[in-house]
Amino acid sequence: xxxKIAKEKEEIIKKNxxxxxxxxxxxxxxTATRDSLSKTVPVKISYINIHPLYKKxxxxxxxxxxxxxxxxxxxxxVTIEESRKVSKNKAWKVINVQKEEVQG
Length: 104
Known about the structure:
About 15% of the residues lie in helices and about 40% in strands.
C-alpha cells in the first residue's frame, strides 16, 4: 500500500515538472497625466472599489511611472505592461498609445 501511494506521488511530481511555468505580464490601461518628462510618462490608473461593510462604491486611483520611447501627450489613453525595473520608480513600459487626445 505505501509503495502505491509513493508511486502516485512521484507520477504527480513528474507531471508537474514537465509543464513549463509561464508568467504573463500584467497589463493596465490609464490616462497619461504629464508629457514633460523624457522617456517617462506618469499614468493614472482608476479603480472602482466596493466598501466591504456598507457596499458603497468609491473611486480610487494610482499613479504609475512608465518607460516609453514613443511620443505620449497629456490626456491620451495608454496601455502599460509590467516589465523589469528600468529605474528606482519605473517598472512598467508603454506598449500602446491611443491616437485620439482627450482634453483635460
